Amino acid sequence: MKHLFIINPIAGGKNCRFEETHREVQEFVKTLKDPAEIYVTKAPFDACTRIEEVAETVDKLFVYACGGDGTLNECANAAANRPNVAITHYPCGTGNDFLKTFGSENAAKFRDLEALATGEIRPIDLIECNDRYGINICSVGIDARIGTDVHKYSKLPIIGGATGYVVSLVINVLKGVVQKFKITADGEVLDKNITLACACNGRYYGGGFNPVPDALPDDGILDCLIVEPVSRFQVAKIVGKYAKGKFKELPDIIRHLRTTELQIEADRKFVVNIDGEAAYTNKMRFKLIKNGVNFIFPAKMSCFRAKA
């Protein structure tokens, strides 16, 4: 048995608390009886390499993603389909959206390292995204474009922070709200313009969007939404309903699918949001992987479990 703490030194952006997190983890490691290692990431996805290396040498490995949703995604990718590895999230990022799935009271419990180390392991589902995995929510369309460009505009000295999202929103709306996609699900093919499409394993993304409030990460189903074309003037109203999970109020505009696979294609490359990280392709398949990763929940945490 070994504990591996993956620390992202830039998690949280301008509110980064790396030194504090590193100190907290170091102090906690001193209390553990089992071997432990602290690994500070140096580049995107190098956490995957380290997890895979350690997993080959031990019979049981607990991995703690000390960062944001991106760090958790890396850990999930390395632990996918490895029965001797279990992951959890020690939230230090900006959004920490996946943990919001379990409710604010439960999400706060993930800040207790001792509760994590003595926690309960439960398998949860993953989303296979071509050659990668997502653990939370994946999407294409205007929201993926906005989310990708936020990082670009937020780095500008005059803009920065949350204002970067507003700037990205305005610019992408001006560029055009809809895109042409070919979407295949359950044998049905939609070849048309859409505003966006998402595949949900969790409930929250984008810092607070909650498109499908009933989504469960252990039910063996992807909750998918497809938003029909809307005008620039309709964006605020439609996205507002979408963000609050009120898609049932707009049945003619937002379509809800419960499936295990959603394939999206286009004539040219498009951006895909995978747990807040960007990927570029002209063909993306979101496929549900039942019980794809072992997840550690804090000890004695009351939490939903999908019905058998």
Defining traits:
single chain; 308 residues; alpha+beta; 9 helices
Helix content range: 25-40%
The span between the termini is 30 Å
How much of the polypeptide forms β-strand, as a percent range?
35-45%
Rg from Cα: 19 Å
Order of helices and strands: EHEHEHEHHHEEEHHEEEEHEEE
Class derived from helix and strand content: alpha+beta
Helix count, DSSP H or I runs of 4 or more residues: 9
Mean pLDDT score: 90
Query: What does the overall shape look like?
Result: globular
Uncertain segments are none
> Count the strands?
14
The main β sheet shows up as: 14 strands, mixed
Short description:
The chain has 308 residues and is α+β, with helices and mostly antiparallel strands. Helix content is 27%, strand content 35%. Strands 1, 2, 3, 4, 5, 6, 7, 8, 9, 10, 11, 12, 13 and 14 form a 14-stranded mixed beta sheet that branches.
